[in-house]
Amino acid sequence: MLSLVDLRRRIEAGTLTPEGAIRLSQEAILARDPVVRATVVTDPAPAVTDAGPLAGIAVGVKDIIDTAAMPTQMGSPIYEGWQPKTDAPIVMRLKALGAVVLAKTTTSPFASVDPTETTNPHDPGHTPGGSSAGSAAAVGAGMLPLALGTQTGGSVIRPASFCGCAAIKPSFRLLPTVGVKTFSWALDTLGLFGAGVGDVAHALALIAARPAIDLGGTPPGTPRVMVVTQDFAEAPAPEAKSALDRARQAAERAGALVRDFALPPEFAAAFESHGTIQDFEARQALAWEYAHHRDALSPRLGPQLDAAQGLDAAAYDDARRKAHRARRLLKTLFSDFDAILTYSAPGFAPRTLASTGDARFNRLWTLMGVPCVNVPVPGDGLPVGVQVIARFGGDGRALAVAAMIEGALER
């Protein structure tokens, strides 16, 4: 994979130019994208600057995020050829830092659950996950050092696990979602994909203008880590259990205090409420598309919105109350520990391109609004990752613990 931190180090040392770094991505896209099919469109003549802390860094932007120089087609024929007049603020921020928006990456229609044509970079017969399929696959294939995705259920962490790259879904609202097609305004969160934890930490610190997020490899002391298996989300596959066991052992070797922890019943109730909140809001967010283009909606999204028409405000309000109770309880629980370690996905990427996989180990944490980091776990076969979670606003802590586990796994 292309490491953002490594590319910037080489540029600063004078052994690589920003133009040369962008060229590496262009060459990798030419070589790998005919099979991986992660990009929708690329900029054939990108303007490369020498200025800025992300100069020379090629970025992929999920195709529900507005870009003025490239179409934003939402993964749907309804928006084929649609050209926004402006960049989304997140795109403007990347450009201000010197990055080059080189590609729009594939997305499930409107960031839903329908699969794209993208294949897993480690085996084209397996799904890359979704809905941020193209962003995860492009980074996992070594085509881009940085890519933007979004998560409403599990659309950043799960595909990162399937494609073998690091990723962060930051704290809710840390990054602006203006100019991003809405599915659920209470859940939608921008996220980042990179080769390793240090890459996404460095990128997030710069994008969010919060230097403390990038700890530069500083050890987080003796973190208290709770291993949570989310029993209410059904059992994972053996490879996911093995990955969690290895990550636990790595955390212990690195000096963390690790304990098992069973979530109180309020979290199972919140887990069940996620779908009601998501679909009640999606019904409104996609009201125009549903009213005027129902027949053009994708095979799974159409019926999902059909069913959502029957949701009422009372059910929505009850679901929000359950989520609020769980968030308050989680805030209290984090006074006793620093991070949660849990599954990123149920197992390896499924052997099918007809599904994006199951987000059941991600939905609760998206609903909680807390930072989540995928850490790839080395092993045989397809990639599988684990998830490190910290309190709301504790993005730097989540990344520091994740980096500690990543380093111990590599050793």
TrEMBL record:
Which Pfam families has this protein been placed in? Amidase
Specify residue ranges for compositional bias: Polar residues: 111-121
All residue ranges annotated as the Amidase domain in the record: 50-397
The record, for InterPro entries, names: Amidase, Amidase_dom, AS_sf
Annotated region (Disordered), positions in chain: 111-134
The family classification in the record reads: Belongs to the amidase family.
Q: Which PANTHER family match?
A: GLUTAMYL-TRNA(GLN) AMIDOTRANSFERASE SUBUNIT A, TRANSAMIDASE
Q: What is the designated name of this protein?
A: Glutamyl-tRNA(Gln) amidotransferase subunit A
State the species of origin: Methylobacterium cerastii
